[in-house]
Design brief:
By secondary structure, the protein is an all-beta fold. The chain has three domains: 3-75, Photosynthetic Reaction Center, Chain H, domain 2 (Alpha-Beta Complex), CATH 3.90.50; 80-118, no CATH class; 130-197, Photosynthetic Reaction Center, Chain H, domain 2 (Alpha-Beta Complex), CATH 3.90.50. The chain has one helix at 193-197, and strands at 3-6, 10-12, 18-27, 34-41, 47-52, 56-59, 63-66, 80-85, 94-95, 115-119, 126-128, 133-135, 141-150, 156-165, 168-175, 179-182, 186-189.
Length: 204
């Protein structure tokens, strides 16, 4: 049975609580294995958590259900960590710090130090963001990736893509075997524009 990981889908805990929205899909480009999803919650103070794919037991276009309860989400690793740039040479000058901004008339004299963020995924992984571009073998953008299709083992099988053609937009399922390069905001395939347009149209 295949599962669909669609950006923006609501993520629910095992006990039925709304945990937030799916914002990224983390995978190994070489193997095609999906390892994590990134779940973001909050409006003003947003927090993004790395959720292991093994905790997903149901995934559809608009909803994803996890095997963990709501309180367990807070124990998971953050997708990104914030660092203040100190200028030190140690570790590239990126040091985690606690900064207490002075209040009152002195606040403008002590501005917040520059902040850098780094993701907590492995170096050989990629985190696909919403609306990633699909690039053909000719190097042309042909559409946008809407969701990732995977099998029961967590292996990616297809990309659901909204393709821009001469007759308008259509939805296609691009096989994972066509993928030759995955970037942060784009996926390049070995197929031509004509080959993509010849794929069967999908509904839903």
């Amino acid at each position: 049975m295949e599962s669909k990981l669609r950006w923006g889908a609501k993520v629910l805990s095992y006990d039925g609580h709304d945990l937030g929205k799916l914002t990224r899909v983390v995978l190994h480009p070489k193997s095609g294995d999906v390892t994590h999803i990134v779940v973001e919650k909050g409006v003003f103070n947003r927090v993004a958590k790395l959720v292991p794919i093994s905790t997903v037991f149901f995934a559809a276009s608009d909803e994803i259900r996890l095997k963990i309860e709501a309180e367990e989400l807070d124990t998971l690793q953050n997708y990104e960590e914030a660092y203040f740039v100190t200028g030190d040479s140690t570790e590239g000058g990126l040091t985690p710090l606690y900064w207490l901004r002075p209040v009152g008339d002195y606040s403008e004299l002590y501005p917040l130090p520059p902040v850098s963020t780094t993701s907590n995924i492995s170096e050989d992984s990629k985190a696909l963001e919403p609306g990633c571009s699909l690039m053909t073998a000719e190097g042309k953008e042909i559409g946008r990736i809407m969701s990732v299709i995977m099998d029961d083992t967590g292996h990616m099988t297809h990309l659901a893509v909204e393709v821009k053609g001469s007759s308008g937009k259509s939805k296609k399922l691009v096989p994972v075997d066509w993928i030759c390069e995955i970037g942060e905001c784009s996926v390049k395939i070995s197929a031509s524009k004509v080959m993509v347009e010849r794929l069967p149209d999908q509904s839903g």
